[in-house]
Write a structure and sequence with these properties.
The complex is a heterodimer of chains A (about 110) and B (about 110). Chain A has strands at about 10-15, 20-25, 30-40, 45-50, 55, 60-65, 70-75, 85-90, 105-110. Chain A is an all-beta fold. In chain B, strands 2, 4, 5, 6, 9, 10 and 11 form a seven-stranded mixed sheet that branches. A four-stranded antiparallel sheet of chain B has the order 1-3-8-7, with no helix packed on it. Chain B contains no helices and eleven strands. The chains are: A mainly beta (about 110), B mainly beta (about 110).
């Protein structure tokens, strides 16, 4: 899997949008961009994934740069429940797993 | 729909003891994996399976054995526990042709 670079931590206010950046300059043409999050004392939870085009689902939006070397996870209206570690991962995502880095610790202030 | 179920949730072992961490999924997924997560770190892949009877090693397989006799179950065996195996263990499953991993709640293991 290609390496990703994320900020160690970010802070935002409740009910405001959050933009979580991720750099992945060595991404290959067949690698997907995956985002998972891990709430305290829980297993990772799928958030969103994409290949080339921007993606939206009920949890978040994923904006992918045209050259695919970076992406941004967008939480449109953060709640306290969104406080978690967010992992950006690039890879095929098959049975041989995904390489999880340290992620971004998102802190939400009330 | 229970998803991925891991047992036990907590376990304390003495050095040299053996034990099996259980993982079961009810989504009929072909692919299953075991990860470990050390404090402040990301997850590292231990072993994975692409179907019943087929397993392969991940990044950190030493000290662990797996088998896959059914689609539903993927147990992880610690042969002779060591303090370095103190960690949180997560099991995950993926449906064939899908791209989403479903994780269990984890087993917190301490080896004294």
């Amino acid at each position: 899997d290609a390496k990703t670079t994320q900020p160690n931590s970010m802070e935002s206010n409740e009910e405001e949008p959050v933009h979580l950046p991720c750099n992945h300059s060595t991404i290959s043409g067949t690698d997907y961009i995956h985002w998972y999050r891990q709430l305290p004392s829980q297993g990772p939870e799928y958030v969103i994934h994409g290949l080339t085009s921007n993606v939206n689902n009920r949890m978040a939006s994923l904006a992918i740069a045209e050259d695919r070397k970076s992406s941004t996870l967008i939480l449109h209206r953060a709640t306290l429940r969104d406080a978690a570690v967010y992992y950006c991962i690039v890879g095929r995502g098959g049975a041989d797993g995904l390489t999880f880095g340290k992620g971004t610790h998102l802190i939400i202030q009330p | 729909n229970a998803g991925v179920t891991q047992t036990p949730k907590f376990q304390v072992l003495k050095t040299g003891q053996s034990m099996t961490l259980q993982c079961a999924q009810d989504m009929n997924h072909e692919y299953m994996s075991w990860y470990r997560q050390d404090p402040g770190m990301g997850l590292r892949l231990i072993h994975y399976s692409v179907g019943a009877g087929i397993t392969d090693q991940g990044e950190v397989p030493n000290g662990y054995n797996v088998s896959r006799s059914t689609t539903e179950d993927f147990p992880l065996r610690l042969l002779s526990a060591a303090p370095s195996q103190t960690s949180v263990y997560f099991c995950a499953s993926i449906g064939q042709g899908q791209n989403i991993q479903y994780f269990g709640a984890g087993t917190r293991l301490s080896v004294l």
